[in-house]
Amino acid sequence: MAVWSLDCTVFFGLISSQKETNIWYNYINIGNKKILCKEVSMLVLSYKKLFKKLIDIDMQHNELMNKANVSRSTFYKLKNGENVNTQTLLRICNALKCDISEIVECVEG
User: Fold this and answer.
1) Closest CA to 23 of 8, 9, 43, 3
2) Backbone angles phi, psi at 8, to 5 degrees
3) Domains (range + CATH), the chain
4) Which of 38, 73, 79, 89 fits as disulfide partner to 7, beta carbons 3.0 to 4.6 Å?
5) Contacts from 51-58 at CB under 8 Å and sequence distance 24+?
6) How far apart are CA 38 and CA 28, in angstroms?
């Protein structure tokens, strides 16, 4: 969960937020005008480090799926940057004998 704050002062008007594709837009509504105050990106998990590690150690995707007991659908979630279960990430870490920071990083989405 990302923490964000509004970078503007409001004297008369309502503050509203609108989420569009992992970016929050904060607005002040004054009369019929909408004024953009700040654009804040949400944090997401990236698995790029995992795929770089697989290349570095010359391991095929199927080999990792077998060693870590990861289904094909879960592996495709990783490839597409979707959320996966923490237990899955830990099984991958155990199979690769690495720390979670070596396969996952938090980035702005």
Assistant:
1) 43
2) -160, 160
3) 1-41 (no CATH), 45-108 (1.10.260)
4) 38
5) 51/79, 53/96, 53/98, 53/102, 53/103, 57/96
6) 10
What are the structure tokens assigned to 95, written together? 């199979």
Q: What is the pLDDT along the chain (109 residues), one digit of tens a residue?
A: 444 444 444 333 444 445 555 555 555 555 566 555 555 567 888 999 999 999 999 999 999 999 999 999 999 999 999 999 999 999 999 999 999 999 999 887 7
For helices 72-79 and 61-68, the axis angle rounded to 10 degrees is 120
Residues 6+ apart with CB under 8 A from 88: 68, 70, 74
